[in-house]
Amino acid sequence: GFVELAELATEEALDALQTALRLVELPESRARVLRAAAEFRGSEVESEAIEWLYEHAVGKEQLAALAATESLGFFEGPGVERLQQVLKRGRSRQVRACAVGELLDHWRPEPDADRIELLVEQAQPPHSGSRSDLLRFLQRASDETVLEVYPDLLGRSRAPMENRALLLLDLAERPEKLAGPVLTRVLTEDGDAALQARALEVCLDRDL
C-alpha cells in the first residue's frame, strides 16, 4: 500500500508516491497517497516531502488539500512554517480550519496574540478539533494577552460568532478584575446583538 511504500522513507519511495498521485484519479485515493507522505517525517527527503505536500495543501482539489494539510501536521520546523502559510493561502475555509487544528499542538505551549487571532478568524470545529480543544488552548493564554487581544477580537464582525463566543467562555473563568472590563466593553459599545446577549449571560452567571 501507499503507507508501506512511504515507510521506506527514501528518495525512490517519494518519487514513487509522486508518480502514483499523477496516475490515480479517484479523489479518495489521491488523498490516501498524500496522507501516506506523513511517513517521510525525519527522513532524508523530509524537505522535499514537505514542499510537495504544501503544493497540494494550497491547491484547488479539496480532498487532496485537506489530506496534504493533515500530513504537514506530522512535521516539525519547516512543516509548521508551511502550515502557517496554508492558513493564509488555503483555498477554502475548511482547509484553513484544518491547518489551525494541525497547528494547535505546536502552538499550545505559547498561545500568543497572533495565534489567538488566527484561531478566532479561521477555526471551524470539528476540522480544527473540538470546541473543548480550542477552549483549552485559549485558557492557557496569559491575562496580559487576554487584555491585549480579546476586546478587539470580540468586536471583529468578520470572525465567526461561535469562535468569538469561545472568548466569552474563557472570560467566564477568568478573574473578575480581568473579565469585568472586557465584558463591559462588549455590552456598552455598538456591536453584535447576539454576542452582547452571550456576554450578558456570562455577567449574570458571575454576578458581575
Helix/strand order? HHHHHHHHHHHHH
Q: What is the global morphology?
A: elongated
Number of helical segments with 4 or more residues: 13
Quick one: how many beta strands?
0
Global structural class = mainly alpha
Largest sheet: none
Distance between the termini: 59 Å
Radius of gyration: 20 Å
What proportion strand?
A: under 5%
Low-confidence stretches: none
Compute the average pLDDT: 94
Helix content: over 70%
Please give a structural write-up.
This protein is mainly alpha-helical. The longest helix has 15 residues. The protein is elongated and about 65 Å long. The chain starts with a helix and ends with a helix.
Provide a compact summary of the structure.
With 208 residues, the protein is mostly helical. The chain has helices at residues 2-6, 11-23, 27-36, 46-57, 62-72, 78-89, 93-107, 113-122, 131-139, 143-154, 161-171, 176-188, 193-206. α7 (93-107) packs antiparallel against α8.
How are the secondary structure elements laid out?
Blueprint (H helix, E strand, L loop, with lengths): L1 H5 L4 H13 L3 H10 L9 H12 L4 H11 L5 H12 L3 H15 L5 H10 L8 H9 L3 H12 L6 H11 L4 H13 L4 H14 L2
Helix pairs in contact: 2-3, 3-5, 4-5, 4-6, 5-7, 6-7, 7-8, 8-10, 9-11, 10-12, 11-13, 12-13
